[in-house]
Amino acid sequence: MALRWTDVFDIAIELEDTHPDADVVNIRFTDLHRWICELADFKDDPERSNEKTLEAIQMAWLDERED
To answer: Is residue 3 part of a domain?
Structure first.
């Protein structure tokens, strides 16, 4: 399954699997962006992200971690 920026929850799951020890609350958006683009299934244009999207992914990642 190819991941796109709109796949917020799926990206969050992949990030939790890939970076289980990450400090999600204090992550820099530059690092978050890089990690997302490095995901094996991520196929979207890296330039299409924005702060709102990265915040949504960060919040979904926090929710994933709390479950």
So the answer is: no
Contact by Cβ (8 Å): 13, 39: no
Tell me what pLDDT residue 66 has.
Answer: 87
Q: Is the pTM of this model over 0.85?
A: yes
**Rounded to 10 degrees, what is the CA torsion of 9, 15, 17, 19?**
-150
Structure token pair of residue 15: 């990030």
C-beta separation of 5 from 53 below 8 A: yes
Does 56 reside within a domain?
Answer: yes
CA angle 14, 61, 44 (to 5 degrees): 50
As for how many domains the chain has, the answer is: 1
